[in-house]
Amino acid sequence: MFDFLLNPVYSTWILEGLLLTIEITLFGVMFGLALGTLLAIGDIYGKKPIKAAIAVYVEFFRGSPLFVQLFLAVYTVPAILNVQIDHYVLAFLVFGLNSAGYQKGYVKGAVETILGDQMQAGLSTGMSKLQTLRHVILPQAYRIVIPAWTNEFCSLTKSTATLAYAGLSDLISAGISIKGITYQIIPVWLVIGAIYLIWITSFSKLMDVIYEKKKIPGLELMMQS
Amino acid sequence: MADLVMEAKHVYKTYGKSNKKADTSTALKTQVEAVKDVSLQIRKGDIKLIFGPSGSGKSTFLRCLAMLDIPDKGEIYLGDECLTKPGVDLNKARARIGFVFQHIYLFRHLTALGNVELALRQVLKLPKEEARKRALDALTEVKVTDCVNKYPAQLSGGQAQRVGIARALARNPDIILLDEPTSALDPELTGEVIDTLRDLAKEGTTMLIVSHEMPFAREVAEEMIFYDEGTIIETGPPLQFFNAPNTDRARKFMTRIINRTTREY
Question: In total, how many domains does chain A have?
Answer without folding.
Answer: 1
